[in-house]
Amino acid sequence: MNPHRRRQSIFTTDHRTIGLQYLILALISVVIGTLLSLLMRIHLVWPDWSLPLHGPILPEDYLALVTIHGTIMLFFVLTTAPQSGFGNLILPAQIGARHMAFPRLNAASFWLTAIALLVLLSSTFAPGGSAISGWTAYPPLSAVASAGPGQALGMDLWLASIALFSIASTISAINTLVTIISLRCEGMTWDRLPLTVWGWFTAALLSIIAFSVLLAALLLLFCDRHVGTSFFLPTGNLVNGILHTKGNGSPLLWLHLFWFFGHPEVYIAILPGMGLTSMLLANFSHRRVFAYRTMIATTLLIGFLGILLWGHHMFVAGLNPFASSAFSISTMAIALPASAKVLSWIATTWRSRPQYTTAMLFSLGFVSLFITGGLTGPILAQPILDEYLHNTFFVVAHFHLIMAMAGVFALFAATYYWFPLMTAHRGKPARLMSEPLGRLHFWLTLLGAYATFLPMHLAGLAGQPRHYAQLTGIPGPGGSLSPAGHLLATTIPLNRLITYAAIFLAAAQIIFFINLVRSLRHGDVAPTNPWQATTLEWHPFLHPNAGPQASDVVITVHHTPCLYICSPSGDTFVPQWENKITVDLPAESKPE
Amino acid sequence: MPPTITPLNTEREKKRRIEDHDSGHGRRPPTDKRTGGGGDNDNWNDRPQGRRGPRENLGRARLAIFFALAGDLMFFVAIVSAFFVSQSSGRYNAYNQYINEWLPTVIPPILWLNTAILLLSSVTVEIARRHMFRENDVMDEWLGLGKPITRSAIPWVSATTVLGLLFLAGQWIGWSQLAAEHVFFRSNPSSHFFFLITYTHAIHLFLGITALTVTLVGLYKSRQLETRQILVDCTAWYWHAMGLFWIFLFALLVFFQ
Amino acid sequence: MSPIFHTAAVLSLPWWLPSNASVHGATLDRHLLLNLWIILALLTLAHLLLIVGLLRRRTTELKDLWRIEYLPLAILALLFALLTVKAESLWAASRYTGADPAALQIEVTGVQFAWYFRYPGTDATFGVTKPQLVAPGEGNPLGIDPTDPHSADDFITSELVLPANREVDLHLRAQDVIHGFSIPEMRLKQNAVPGHTIHVHFTPTTPGTYAVLCTQLCGLGHYRMNATVRVLSPAEFAQWLATKQKAAQP
Ligand code: HEA
Ligand code: HEA
Ligand code: CUA
Ligand SMILES: [Cu+2]
Bridge-partner residues for C160, per DSSP? Predict the structure, then answer.
């Protein structure tokens, strides 16, 4: 097939286009997910506000909102955009390759992902609505159709969607791994790989391990639902008059299988962001990444430990207390590689007087949010404390700061940083996003993020549980006057604050979209290497618009990335592809 | 791996275009005769990607298959761990008696036969795979003397396909025998796993057979030696893996219930 | 020191931990407070380092791996290790061992969407339950088997009534889906899982009424699946128990 006709169709196998398609998919998802989260927030504080065209939001609607919000954001935004979106767009160039290892597989996995998203969204129109069992889908709630509205067809669609998504991610993970292993250009040794690539690499390894297990778990759940098996259903399980009379299944089996996937999944979501942050901090502070080898090691270590601590989600879920202690220790252990990264980030920027581009600002924001969100991790990792905090908004605050906000900040940094490489496409000029708008967007988003998710810690400490459709009008004995009603009612002012902040935060994103749309057409045209970057994606001959003859040029790498040299004779930087070193290096600052 | 000698330098300098499928055959001898040893100015012990000789794409495809199989392994590992969990989990009934509903599923004897068949098919597919890399035939093809490789490989590939189908048929008989004794998927914890494991493995084998048929078509159609090598090689590795998985799963079902 | 922090925090903040009414809660609170202060310190320290580093004028890059990377890591490792040890010891104290035999036995059953509390009655043993017999309409929500002699004197309440300062041994069960049994004021949380009976034990101290919440998503009524704990003085409790048992006697 000739490359030209291939380009025309949207079923392209060109990795850049596929990357963009992934990003567009993620963008659509994030908009939907955000709107859902706002509905949740509004309903929490104004329960009797009724949604136009829908009417009042019923408890099951709220749970469906939470479930779809979590599923969309975690799978279709934070697994898709960093790993597959920017992975396809940037990864090949960063290792000096001109294409992914398996272009057709690549396209296949994108379209699988797209179908998965459609299936998930279609569940809204299923009788009974979408699934209401959260993104963790604990059985029997998720295994028995009579357990609640949305647990019939809605749940099946959820299962189908996630199964498709798992297959798609596994395929694209394989593609990523093979590309990184076998398509690196000459001189691109393992310790010269940019940390972003290391992030993608580790995340891909985790994906292969984790998603296969999830697929198995989904299969078992499907059998329980439709074949009459009892993997997760114990004998005598009675749900709304449906009695399960045989078998020795246990819901805990699902918890183990799911969290064996679930925890690696959250690291899949953040590892590329960590890598990107390291690179951008070094790039804009014109420094080498502090302790490069250690950063590679910690990336792999985080990946490895990430497989061993799924039990920290189950301390009070029926896990044997001794196992809890073991998982607690392994979880505390992972705080160390993470801290090592934080230290390296701080050390890289230390007294560097960086150049505050929007991308840099968002990377700094990532560091801040990662610290704030991460530090609550070790608290949750202590079973005795988790006994109080489990399934409270303290947890919600934890993972929104470190996953949602930090992850999204990495996405923003990537978007502002690589925008020229997104727009420079099929001969269109490379454009930059507007910096002033970007800075405004950054400060508002940072403010909004903290204003939204810091108070959640207090709500959690006050005891507000997750997945509560209402905080007032609890029809329990005594209503709001009952101790329970009272306990929940006290958090309402706090929640009102959170809701206002969330609306503010979401509104701030409008600036981003304006900037995006505007810059696509009218952004300033960017030079080939606008950020004085050292990594290969800015190589003149790997540039999207490099022209056909460029594909003949042999790319060779000579240095570690981020080789920024500040010497008496002035600061210089040596791109990875530069052969000559312009200034003679002081002995100790020789490239590793 | 074929014997190896260091390449001519002229070849290393040669430009390569991505668009035309210059992956070793046609342009230069299709057998890799180069040491893995390196020593270019950048002391990086490897050749520039795109010019690592005829085995390059093959190597990639293999790598992909191996990663895929690693994931598949995790899939089965998950199921097997579930197997052990639910086997060891009983409960106390109302009268505080400990009961474990797990009653082992009898293995239909025919499964032993199937296992033998599957092992045999692994042999045949391996022979087919070896045929793809026979030096002389490869050279003949390169010199344009017909498709000796296809000729020698097709019988073995088809044999594998037939054996695979036999295996599936055998499994089906096994299932129907159990059905005759009223043992079904839903019957009992152990039968859950018996059927789950045999079904999922059968589905994998079905995929394998599809791959084999694709390979056969490829052997007829494709004129590119490398494409055919990749097809047969990867299918073979997949097939071997399925054989291996089956050995473990079968052992699990026979000895560990 | 931390008790002072605690009271200070409770007074200063409108939203804070609800007051604690259990024995192990006090140590838990102290440990939680300690943790919060530590991460607050680390948080400010890290941000200070970040900001100061950004503000001061440019110098050549840092090189000293040991001083900047490994030493702080060692300190953090030590810190996290100490916290872990403390936490595990507290956890072990509250969970490794079962309740002592003298503890008050109560069975807690979670059903969409209510909590049922069953007291064993005078014979101190629970009658058998059978899911087939479950009939909330006929006042038998737990499916107690009337043919079992032990079940005659069992009685079920919708509110958990406890004596102060006596250990309680809860048998957590769930009929349909996973529920989360939680009493914030007792610093107690444990899921009730269908097919399992999970034991937790604790000792309430201060008489009063407290909230029981469901903290595991269990369906559309999750948010309203709550109950009340009433902690009485031992004397009042004995009286209450006597009346209940008299009522239960056939
Ligand atoms: C990536 C993950 C992610 C993100 C971004 C968010 C964003 C938000 N989330 Fe969510 N949330 C989850 C993941 C996420 N969440 C998960 C996993 C759960 C648990 C579900 C469950 O329990 O089953 C949850 C649950 C959850 C709850 C708990 C509900 C409950 O248990 O009762 C609440 C309540 O306030 C909430 C609120 C919000 C709010 C206000 C935002 C706001 O931040 C929204 C504002 C949005 C943005 C700031 C993002 C804008 C980003 C872009 C525009 C980037 C686009 C760029 C590219 C794609 C290149 N979320
Ligand atoms: C990107 C996603 C992400 C990341 C990176 C993390 C990181 C961590 N998480 Fe989190 N977690 C989630 C996403 C994530 N988590 C989600 C989604 C859930 C909820 C799932 C659900 O129930 O729906 C969750 C829930 C969760 C729980 C279960 C809570 C509960 O349900 O009761 C626990 C418990 O141990 C935990 C622990 C940790 C720990 C120890 C880390 C560690 O990796 C954190 C390491 C970071 C640090 C320790 C900070 C380092 C900085 C410093 C130490 C400062 C350095 C100091 C100086 C320089 C002076 N997480
Ligand atoms: Cu019961 Cu939530
Ligand atoms: Cu986790």
Answer: C229
Peptide bond into C113 cis (omega under 30): yes
Q: Tell me if the bond preceding A429 is cis, omega within 30° of 0.
A: no
Q: Which ligand is nearest to the CA of A402?
A: 2
Identity of the amino acid at A176? T
| A205: its two tokens | 């390894």
pLDDT of B20 = 40
Of the ranges A430-444, A548-562, B208-222, C115-129, which one carries the lowest mean pLDDT score? A548-562
**Torsions phi, psi of A523, nearest 5?**
-60, 155
Closest CA to C214 of C245, C240, C191: C191
Which pLDDT tens digit goes with each residue over A159-169? 999 999 999 99
Ligand 1 binding pocket includes A74 (Cβ within 6 Å): yes
A130 within ligand 1 shell (Cβ under 6 A): no
Q: Within 10 A of B77 (CB to CB), how many other CB atoms are there? A: 15
- A277 within 8 A of A410, measured Cβ to Cβ: yes
Residue of B17, B89, B102 with shortest CB distance to A552: B17
Q: How high is the ipTM of this complex? A: 0.91
- Spatial distance between the Cα atoms of C190 and C198, rounded to a whole number of angstroms: 8
CA distance C240 to A50: 45
CA separation, residue A305 to residues A157, A211, A260, A321, C85 (Å): 32, 17, 12, 20, 20
Q: Is B160 exposed, middle or buried (0-12, 13-18, 19+ CB in 10 A)?
A: buried
Query: Which sign does the torsion angle of CA C5, C10, C12, C14 carry?
Result: positive
pLDDT value of residue A478: 57
Tokens, residue C235: 């004397």
Q: Which of B39-43, B205-209, C222-226 is predicted least confidently?
A: B39-43
Question: Does the pTM of the predicted model rise above 0.90?
Answer: yes
Query: Position C78: which residue type?
Result: L
Residue of chain B whose alpha carbon sits nearest to that of C144: B94
Cβ–Cβ under 8 Å, residues C242 and C234: no
Q: Tell me, what's the pLDDT at C6?
A: 43
DSSP C39-100: HHHHHHHHHHHHHHHHHSPP-PPP--HIIIIIHHHHHHHHHHHHHHHHHHHHHIIIIIS---
| Residue at A411: amino acid letter | L
Residue type, C229: V
For B96, name the nearest residue in chain C, comparing CA atoms only: C128
Q: Which helix (H) or strand (E) holds A570?
A: strand A570-574
The closest of B26, B1, B65 to B230, measured between CA atoms, is B65
Burial of A328 (0-12, 13-18, 19+ CB in 10 A): buried
pLDDT at A427 over 80: no
List, in sequence order, every residue forming a beta bridge with A588; answer none if it has no partner. Answer: none
A444 touches chain B (CB under 8 A): no
Look up residue A427 and give its two tokens: 């001969």
Closest ligand 3 atom, CA of C214?
Answer: 2
Q: Where are the alpha helices (DSSP H) in chain B?
A: 9-13, 55-88, 110-131, 135-142, 148-180, 189-221, 225-255
Percent helix, strand and coil across chain B, each to the nearest 5: 65, 0, 35
Among residues A283, A137, A67, the alpha carbon closest in space to that of A196 is found at: A283
**Cα(A396) to centroid of ligand 1, in Å?**
9
Hey, what amino acid is at B144? Answer: G
- DSSP lists the bridge partners of residue C230 as C161, C209
Name the residue with the closest Cα to ligand 2, atom 19.
A399
The candidate with the shortest Cα–Cα distance to A345, out of A401, A273, A447, is A273
pLDDT, tens only, A93-148: 999 888 899 999 999 999 999 999 999 999 999 888 899 999 999 999 999 988 88
Residue A529 CB-half CA count within 13 A: 18
CA distance A290 to A350: 10
pLDDT mean over A560-564: 87
Hunting for tokens 């000293």 — which residue is that? C64
